[in-house]
Amino acid sequence: FDKCANNRRVFKVETVGDSYVAVAGLPEARKDHAVAMCRFAQDCKKAFTDVVNRLEMLLGPETADLSMRFGLHSGPVTAGVLRGDKARFQLFGDTMNTASRMESTGKPGVIQVSHDTAEILKEAGKGAWVTPREEMVQVKGKGMLITYWLAVNAATGRSRDGSSTTSGTSVSSEVSDAYTWSNQSKRNVPINGQTKEDQKTQRLVQWNVGVLSDLLSRVIAAHKDISAPANTTTTMGKARNTPDASSLLHVEAGMPLDEVKEVISISNCGFQPSHMPPDEPLEKLNKVAKTQLHDYVSTIAAMYKDNAFHNFEHASQVAMAECKLLSRVVNPKLSGVSDDNPEGHGSTLHDSYGITSDPLVQFACVFSALIHDVDHPGVPNSTLLSENEAMAQTYGKRSMAEQQSFDLAWNLLMDARFNELKLAICGDNTDELNRFRQILINVVLATDVMDKDLNELRAKRWDRSFGTSVVEEAKKDKIDRKATVVIEHMIQAADVAHTMQHWHIYHKWNSRLFSEMYSAYSAGRTTENPAEGWYEGELGFFDTYIIPLAKKLDECGVFGVASSEYLSYAERNRMEWEDKGKFIVEEYLQEYKAASDAVASKDTIMEDDEREG
Q1: % of the chain residues with pLDDT over 90
Q2: What are phi and psi of 391, to 5 degrees?
Q3: Are 301 and 192 in contact (CB under 8 A)?
């Protein structure tokens, strides 16, 4: 923003909390102060959008949802320097107060200007930049005011350094994109051939590829650590000249549900990147494998349907939650682990049950999050059972959505286009590919929390692992069973992570789930109106699933002091829902109907345009 101000000869006054205050026409007077400030606001808006879009690829989904309000007003001010230990230049007066109200009464992502500023712009020949706001604004101390939305349309000006700055979009489309469909425009206009949703999907793809690439680098390093003799170099980081991967990497595939195991084998290789010598950095994916990973994730993203909840953004959210949970698993020193000492006497292997020492498990957990809802139909398995008889027969009338998601993702991975990616995952080892498949099946199928048989299996396994049941078995089997429990509980927690985070996140995703369920009801796919039981259903979901799940995350003992955070948020969200839920359900219903009306209006306009064309 400071650079934008310098380029536009705008004076930065101060930052107050989350507010950036600037002025044009001070301390040097200039006739084009309103035009300059409008261009400055537009520059800041673009700069902010660029920053959060870049951050989304680093920090994960929803970072680009951060937004700003902008407010402009023109008029006289009193300027002075406040004395004291921290003397500073400051502006006072009604103009400052009104500018503040223009910001606070605005909408995220758009620039609101006062009537006075709009009149100055019109006198300067910039009337096309503003359009009246649909409703008047209640301003403290001022009453009801007429205000305007601003978008600097194809505005080009000279910055201080002589460079040309351009920003262009129509007023109506900018306001429409920011918060509502306006009367002037109801289109999601493509930019460089991509809509905003397309661009968001590409950022999510890039983030997923980045996370999976880092985890896969650890897998490659573990292959090297296990297979390479001392003083031997390998070429895992380069394009390899290997036999046909399709002949090497083949596993017998059946119905995924039949392959669910009580215990997944966890490697006790003891790999720890932090213990590697400084001159031996983690192996990186070769360019071919990196390209194939990007193509794979992009294809997976395209296979997700445009559901309100079960979509690619949700999958990315689950992947981010998985990463967070993995980062909080206790990271023990594993130097005491060996085949003769599988429990890690002299170490703390039991604290993480080998999860932190098995890069393939970590990669598989995040990979599973990415694929777990591929091609989700937008309705539960109970509805699929009645509306898709072929799918019901294929998958034995159980966990149909989850099994289909796994099959679609696995069959895609087995395509010859991704041979180098498969080699990076399993290191030319069919046994490792089988183990990878096994982890994926257990994790993806763990997201079906309604199947009675699977729930019974999980309950018995929990009791044998962390309960009172005494089972005579090898120490490694005991550790692997506990690891399997933890891995499945992590994906279950990640899948409903919104219920164990801040209230506004829970509120947002709960609204989306309601919209998806109500859409199915409106389309006649389901017979029960979700609005009638949503309030009570959420309370029951917290009491019978979310809060017990959060407690198990603590009881399994691998997340250290961080485990209490999930339970704390779940209990607070439950309390707030109990207090506000009935009113919120009414809001959900109104929002759904308003959105449906907006879509219908948009479709009508597009049809009119096609006829006129």
Answers
A1: 60
A2: -65, -40
A3: no
Q: What residue has token string 């997700």?
A: 304
Residue predicted with more confidence, 561 or 421:
421
Res. 175: pLDDT tops 70: no
Residue 18 has a CB neighbour count (10 Å cut-off) of 7
Partnered with residue 79 across adjacent β-strands are 91
Question: Binning pLDDT at 50, 70 and 90, where does residue 234 land?
Answer: very low
Tens of pLDDT, residue by residue over 334-355, are 434 344 444 443 344 445 888 9
- The pair of structure tokens assigned to 356 is 């932190």
Beta bridge partners of 323: none
Confidence of residue 561 (pLDDT cuts 50, 70, 90): confident
**Which residue in 388, 230, 216 sits closest to 290, CA to CA?**
216
Q: Which of 251-255, 326-330, 360-364 shows the lowest mean pLDDT across its residues?
A: 251-255
Average pLDDT, the chain: 83
pLDDT over 70 percentage in the chain: 79
Residue tagged 């949802």 (tokens):
65
Q: Report the greatest alpha carbon distance in the chain.
A: 88
Cα torsion 86, 89, 93, 96: sign: negative
| Cis upstream peptide for 76 (omega within 30°) | no
3-state SS class at 229: coil
Three-state secondary-structure class, residue 11: strand
Which residue is listed with tokens 């005579």?
472
Q: Which residues, in sequence order, are CB contacts of 378 under 8 Å at separation 6+?
A: 305, 307, 310, 516, 519, 520, 525
Pair of tokens at residue 183: 């009367």
Residues 6 or more apart whose CB falls under 8 angstroms from that of 526 comprise 379, 383, 517, 520
Q: How far is residue 218's CA from residue 323's CA, in Å, rounded to a whole number? A: 14
Scan for tokens 């007429």, then name that residue: 146
| Cα–Cα distances in angstroms (integers) from residue 516 to residues 62, 81, 316, 387, in the given order | 19, 56, 18, 17
DSSP conformation letters of 199-219: HHHHHHHHHHHHHHHHHHHHH
Check: CB of residue 113 under 8 Å from CB of residue 72.
Answer: yes
Count Cβ atoms below 10 Å from residue 529 Cβ, excluding itself. 13
Q: Which residues contact 473 (CB under 8 A, 6 or more apart)?
A: 481
Structure confidence at residue 341 (pLDDT): 47
Query: Model confidence at 42, in pLDDT bands (50, 70, 90)?
Result: very high
The single-letter code of the amino acid at 531 is: A
Where does 430-510 show beta strands of DSSP type E? none
Q: Would you say 312 and 201 are in contact if contact means Cβ atoms under 8 Å apart?
A: yes
In angstroms, rounded to a whole number, what is the distance separating the alpha carbons of residues 261 and 257?
Answer: 9
pTM over the 0.90 mark: no
Provide the 3-class DSSP secondary structure of residue 21.
strand
3-class SS of residue 72: strand
Residue 582: per-residue pLDDT: 96
Q: What is the DSSP letter of 562?
A: G
Alpha-carbon distance 226 to 283, whole Å?
A: 14
For residue 468, the model assigns a pLDDT of 77
- Residue 217 CA to residue 283 CA, distance in Å, equals 5
Sign of CA dihedral 2, 6, 9, 12: positive
